[in-house]
């Protein structure tokens, strides 16, 4: 059966299931339509400055709505910094950038205690982590202590300085970047830490016509002003609404089959992958794949998840969660190749 026809049948099946399960699809759809109205506004504002890179902008929104964090990989100059800066301008929020270097200290990220001679006591000076949007530029350039300080804040959404613990503002999104080419003077993120990123997105070069527009805009030196069109309250409401997007049991099973195929490929007629995988995706992979699929449905202004939503985000959620063996490296097999094989093998509901 043709894939798109299969999708239409699945959507019809979902709607009938919802009626049987007394899930009110109409009210869910109406709510999602209402709450997701700002997505077009936000995208329009970002497109004033960001030419092309639709994929990256979509992933930023998925990370923001799913209350996760994003690891962006790409060569310098692909508008990674500009994208998160523009997003923070389009939302009434605060933005900070941390340039990671080998001599950076944890206190440079989270803040520290400073002795105040006037009051004869220590006062707290908060670091750049205290913002709604934090750009951790070239995260693999800083030593493990600094990476841990940032990743703890990401996981716990709080920071401890001295004896005091501070909750971080919501929404809170960390976008970390890393240059895949340079290896000198870098400290690769350990698997346990990289797993805390909801998505790992690989950014490619723009198309030739897009790059022509980029060159023209830069030569003119005139970019449209980005307006704050969305409030943080709207984003927080949307984050709650995303959880209400309906996910059928068949979709849950589909997600779990994909995850379990990364752990036990031989059970899914993929025995040839067994020697290529050193470890599969953790339960964080299942959770984040489900949340990301809901976020993608929300961005498409739909109140229920279809298999296409899962397939759209599966590479970004899993590419950093599958360990490859030396044998795979010798055969030039990447985690993306493994994901492609799994997704093509697992039957779409």
What's the architecture of the largest domain in CATH terms? 3-Layer(aba) Sandwich
Largest sheet: 5 strands, parallel
Distance from N terminus to C terminus (CA atoms, Å) equals 12 Å
> What's the name of the CATH homologous superfamily of the largest domain?
P-loop containing nucleotide triphosphate hydrolases
Q: Could you give the count of β-strands?
A: 11
Order of helices and strands: HHHHEHEHEEEHEEEHEHHHEHHEHH
Give the C-alpha Rg: 22 Å
Task: Characterise the protein shown here.
- The chain is of the alpha/beta class and 349 residues long.
- It has helices at residues 3-20, 25-35, 38-47, 54-65, 80-90, 106-110, 144-156, 191-194, 208-220, 232-243, 249-263, 283-299, 307-318, 326-330, 335-345, and strands at residues 70-73, 95-99, 111-116, 121-126, 133-137, 158-161, 164-167, 173-178, 199-202, 277-279, 323-324.
- Strand 6 (158-161) and strand 7 (164-167) form a beta hairpin.
